[in-house]
Write a structure and sequence with these properties.
This protein is of the alpha+beta class and 302 residues long. It is built from 8 helices and 10 strands. The protein has 2 domains: 26-138, no CATH class; 146-284, Ribonuclease H-like superfamily/Ribonuclease H (Nucleotidyltransferase, domain 5), CATH 3.30.420. This is Reverse transcriptase Ty1/copia-type domain-containing protein.
Length: 302
């Protein structure tokens, strides 16, 4: 659905139940007069509300409580996790298609599918209730005459108290259109916030290389360097400084890979203040004010 910004042309067919739009695997796509596109999943969300009996529930303003990971879970395990798995599968579809605002919450709860608790199930229903409150929100793929690929990357150092692993988050914008995002738990414990940020930047660098090749295949080769926004100054200096110290030698392979991309002019790491870091929303549950600000930067509009 987001491939139009990469050079695809779309044909529109009239639908008896929807004016001036179409449904693609139940995703609604509308085109604005300025050439922008609006993506929504209102039908999927309505289906979720009906399936899980939440049609008359009260909406929430954020998808997850900020202290969810820090609270001690003393609730019982679910006797049957089938419904939990079904809900996570449906939420994963929604968040990867046009709702990046629930990506972190879904990522956290998807780790519990083998042994979810009553508390986890309550958190899943909270996401659905949040979607009820934002059912009219659409992901705006803004039109742009000369779009450039940019990346925002961030991490939450040791954010999971159960094992102190960090969460990486990155998002890619093509002009003003979000085209790729991810919230991923890192598979090892980072010894510092710089290391955690570096692992996140490394993952984003891999995705960037793929998107760069994809754009080239579409005849939209990117000018160099591609800007990667980072809110950790030490991480930026680590890439720009050739010296690997005893404190960073254990992440040397990742350092040299990002340095290679930087030295050859493929990427340029640029500092971005934390309160402007779009990817922060993908690393941890945020309080309402910060969450709504970054949600708007992502292009989600009512």
């Amino acid at each position: 659905s987001r491939l139009w910004v990469l050079g695809f042309q779309m044909r529109y067919k009239s639908c008896s139940h929807q004016k001036r739009g179409l449904w693609t695997t139940e995703q609604q796509i509308k085109r604005e007069k300025d050439g922008s596109f609006l993506l929504s999943q209102s039908q999927k969300i309505l289906e979720l509300l009906e399936i899980f009996g939440l049609t008359d529930s009260h909406p929430t303003q954020t998808p997850m409580m900020t202290d969810f990971l820090k609270r001690e879970d003393q609730t019982e395990y679910l006797a049957n996790n089938t419904q939990y798995r079904e809900a996570i599968g449906k939420l994963l579809y929604i968040c990867t298609s046009c709702h990046p605002d629930i990506s972190n919450a879904v990522s956290i709860l998807s780790r519990k599918v083998n042994a979810p608790t009553e508390s986890d199930w309550g958190a899943v229903k909270r996401i659905v209730r949040y979607l009820k409150g934002t059912i009219d929100y659409k992901l705006r793929l803004a039109a742009c005459d000369n779009p450039k690929l940019t990346c925002y990357t961030d991490s939450d150092w040791g954010g999971d108290p159960s094992n102190y692993r960090s969460t990486s988050g990155y998002c890619f914008m093509y002009g003003n259109a979000p085209i790729a995002w991810a919230s991923i738990k890192q598979n090892l414990v980072s010894l510092s916030s710089t290391e955690s940020e570096f692992y996140a930047a490394s993952e984003a660098g891999r995705e960037l290389c793929w998107l760069d090749r994809l754009l080239s295949d579409f005849g939209r080769a990117e000018s160099r360097p591609i800007v990667m926004y980072e809110d950790n100054q030490s991480c930026i200096r680590l890439v720009q400084n050739e010296k690997i110290t005893c404190r960073t030698k254990h992440i040397g392979v990742r350092v040299y890979r990002l340095k290679e991309l930087s030295d050859e002019g493929t990427i340029e790491l640029v500092y971005c203040p934390t309160d402007q870091m779009t990817a922060d929303m993908l690393t941890k549950p945020l309080p309402r004010e910060s969450f709504e600000k970054l949600r708007g930067k992502f292009g989600l509009i009512a």
